[in-house]
Amino acid sequence: MIKKFERFEAILAKVQSLFFCVVLGFMALVMFAAVVCRYVLNNPLIWSEELTTVMQGALAFAGIGYCCHYKAHTRVLLLHDKLPKIGQVICDLLCDGVMIFCLFKFCETMPKYIKSKEAYLTTLRWLNYSVFNYFIYAGFILAIFYILVDAVRTVLQAMHPELAESEES
Question: Residues near 142 by Cβ (< 8 Å), separated by ≥ 6?
């Protein structure tokens, strides 16, 4: 069962990676066009800065789950690596539990936040700001999924150390 989770997790991480690359590429093109329009054509794109700013903020939060997949910034390794194996397992499960709790609380309050921030961008009147908040919400949900899979993996490897050794070789 954990293999199916890991396979799904790997596919999801690839889809997220592709999505992030496309969005970052779009942001780079918009910024390039803004520079050309401002300094070459002397006619600035007034919407470019606002759009790329909110896109960057949404991508940062949407990337939480992606970072959790690669265990980026989710462990205090200075302390973690010095603990015995059982201490590392307990530390991992405590960290996972705290992160899941916090992300769950964010997910609880996010719909209210999205509703309160329902407004249109000032420079692009047709683009609702809530669109970017949905990416943040999705990032929180994906992070919970990734952390849950990691917690299940940690428990299974602690209960069956031979599984961890066979995966490493």
Answer: 12, 16, 62, 64, 65, 66
Rounded CA-CA distance 62/37 in Å is 30
Start-to-end CA span in the chain (Å): 20
Radius of gyration of the chain (CA): 20
Q: What is the pLDDT of residues 121-148, one digit of tens each?
A: 778 878 787 888 888 888 888 888 888 8
Please give the distance of CA 126 from its chain centroid, rounded to a whole number: 27
- The residue with tokens 């010095």 is 82
Q: Give the model confidence (pLDDT) of 17-58 as tens digits.
A: 898 899 999 999 999 999 999 999 988 888 888 888 888 888
Helix (H, G, I), strand (E, B) or coil at 1: coil
59, 48 in Cβ contact below 8 A?
no
